[in-house]
Amino acid sequence: MNGVKSNTATGTTGTASSSVRGRFAPSPTGLLHQGSLYTALGSWLSARAQGGQWLVRIEDIDQGRANPAFSGHILQTLEAFALHWDGPVVYQSQRLALYEAALNRLTIRGLVYPCSCSRRDLPAAHTPLAEPFYPGTCREGPQHPERACALRVRVPDRLLRVYDSEQGWHSENLAERGGDFTLRRRDGFYAYPLAVVVDDAEQGITEVVRGLDLWPQTVRQRWLQQALGFKVPHYSHLPLVVEPDGQKLSKSQRSIPVNPAQAPHHLAQALTALGLNPPHSLQQSSPHEMLQWALEHWALRPRLPASIPAWPTPP
Ligand code: GLU
């Protein structure tokens, strides 16, 4: 599928000496930018500092948006930054049978139903990026059975709680916030909340360190884990790296990819963003040595601010 397929733990990684298992799960919709480097580094340091394993999963479930060229670039960039992973890279596009099996288990429990609504049939969302609230239109049967249907899951009407080591406790009633959500889209693609929950469980992930933009999705995932009888990983949602206007850096938008030729600069900035204080002289070292330094100092870092400003790229 691309040039880099697997990368067994050596050197910096050492042999995993604990049951901790972290992961980095990029969607290949663009090149690796500052924000994704920072998330990758945060999850790598968290897992490795505990003597754990670190896996990479390419989230190419949405074949309309995923691009194999980006997957290859992301993996090569991680390697250039000495962010070595354990075992083979997993691709969501090759794991459809796992998602289908999980969907079947929920269907047997009577939790899944077909929904013929298009976005236009639903009440408008409060913000352009928010998912619209689903009022349960097709709960008793699809309103337009002639249309292709999505599959939705019935969410419970009660308060659910999820804990995050950066964000603390969060309570939410799924029935009031987004309503029944999609597990398989009308175009046949499995939806992110199902795929991520199945993959994290199947890969034995014990801790999820990722960007704060995914925190609002976490109650859904937590509930799906419970419905499927999966173990719940520890969560840690890192503040987002933002542009001067406060916008999240996004692979698919205008952010500039990190340049492996400037790895020490980017690593030093990303380590600072993660609350460490790398000495300037560290930038004379190799990425591998910089990561060793970071592992030694990881436990001492302070609490992070609400968001992290993007750092300038050297000319
Ligand atoms: N694939 C998601 C992204 O690139 C991350 C999903 C996750 O870490 O759970 O934003």
Explained architecture:
The protein is α/β, with parallel strands linked by helices and 315 residues long. It folds into two domains: 7-93 and 239-309, 3-Layer(aba) Sandwich (Rossmann fold), CATH 3.40.50.620; 97-193, Glutamyl-tRNA Synthetase, Domain 3 (Glutamyl-tRNA Synthetase, domain 3, Alpha-Beta Complex). It is 29% helix and 17% strand. It is built from eight helices and twelve strands. A three-stranded parallel sheet has the order 1-2-3, with helices on one face. It has a three-stranded antiparallel sheet with strand order 4-5-8. A two-stranded antiparallel ribbon has the order 6-7. Helix 7 (263-273) runs parallel beside helix 8 (287-297). The radius of gyration is 20 Å and the shape is elongated. The chain binds glutamic acid. Glutamic acid binds at residues 25-27, 59, 196, 210, 214. Residues 25-27, 59, 196, 210, 214 line the site of glutamic acid (GLU).
In short:
With 315 residues, the chain is α/β, with parallel strands linked by helices.
Regarding quaternary structure, how should these chains be classified? single chain
Number of strands: 12
Biggest β-sheet, characterized? 3 strands, parallel
Please write the string of helix (H) and strand (E) elements.
EHEHEHEEEEHEHEHEEHHE
Shape: elongated
Low-confidence stretches: 1-14
Helix content: 25-40%
Tally of individual domains? 2
Which whole number gives the mean pLDDT?
90
In CATH terms, the superfamily of the largest domain is HUPs
The DSSP helix count reads 8
Per DSSP, what share of the residues sits in E-state strands of 2 or more residues? 15-25%
The end-to-end distance, rounded to whole angstroms, is 33 Å
Largest sheet, spatial ordering of strands: 1-2-3
If classified by CATH, what would the architecture of the largest domain be?
Answer: 3-Layer(aba) Sandwich
Bound heterogens, unique: glutamic acid
CATH domain class of the largest domain: Alpha Beta
Q: Could you please say which CATH topology of the largest domain applies here? A: Rossmann fold
Radius of gyration: 20 Å
**Could you say which structural class the secondary elements and strand pairing correspond to?**
alpha/beta
